[in-house]
Amino acid sequence: MxxxxxxxxxxxxxxxIGAIALILFVLYQISSIIVYLVIAxxxxxxxRPLIIFMKxxxxxxxxxxxxxxxxxxxxxFLGLVSLFIPLIAEQGSNLSLLDIDQLRSKVETIYxxxxxxxxxxxxxxxxxxxxxxxLNKIDYTFLPDFFNALxxxxxxxxxxxxxxLFIAFFFLRDSKMFDRIILIILPDDWEDHYKNSSLKxxxxxxxxxxxxxxxxxxxxxxxxxxxxxxxxxxxxxIAFLCALLNLxxxxxxxxxxxxxxLLTMTNYLDSSFSEVILPKAxxxxxxxxxxxxxxxFFSQPIILGKSVKSHPLEIFLVILIAGVLFGVIGLIVAVPxxxxxxxxxxxxxxxNKIVKELTKDI
Length: 362
Description:
Blueprint: H1 3-29, H2 31-56, H3 62-95, H4 100-117, H5 123-132, H6 134-137, H7 142-153, H8 157-173, H9 177-185, H10 191-230, H11 235-244, H12 251-266, H13 273-308, H14 312-348, H15 353-358
Helix pairs in contact: 2-3, 2-8, 2-10, 3-8, 10-11, 10-13, 10-14, 11-12, 12-13
């Protein structure tokens, strides 16, 4: 191997690394646009069954069906904004989510009330807590950061909403746009496999996202009704936030349940702990339990059984690996991404023994 060949190899390697770095940099710079594209794709998948229904049953042409679907999405989002902006502002004021010190003080007060009520405030325990400063080590910025991100996001909501709906309109109007782009790149002998897998993935993801929306909606209704019956202040906002956290598999329900109990207790610090705070916390715990029973035994089996078509252990391992590699985003996208990969593998590697076993139910 002479010096010329070596130098050419080094130049190709450097060029490849540079090209990859440039692509990653460009993707980082246009990350907001990528987010709009992803949301638009999800909306197009959600609207796809509605458009098919209007075209087949109501005999609407494609453009009219797409416009009606976009108007439905727009009305839904505007309804959420008109409903939640005043409630979120009030909730932020009542719960002092923007004041870390006050939030910490409220949590410490709740702990003190609980310790006194259950007689667990022994000198040894208190001394150990003071030495370890356990309460001070709790990251109280989680709630304010989440809340502030939600509120600040409303500032650019209009631009984002217009961009997403504009992109989604064309995705819905021309559902084969992506297919044509990808088919230009793929070899001719792969076209049939891609067309089959693309159709299956669209159907699968449409069912999955519709099921996920229904799952969150059911949980929100259960939480809202339960909190309203109990008499919790700002029940709608608390129920919405906690139901939304259920999008994060396994961890989300625990965080949502704990958040619901904490927000309820901090709303009644001026009342008697044994007569008001503790009973309301227990009632909220019951509401959380009912919601999770319905979610785990009715909602999730429908979604995982009909859409994902994978073994529960298989799904658990996929979510666990995705969470370790990509964090919270990995937890959320693990199931639809894994299901899409399985469909692709079945189309392109149907004769592989491992692929046959993994995709036997698809």
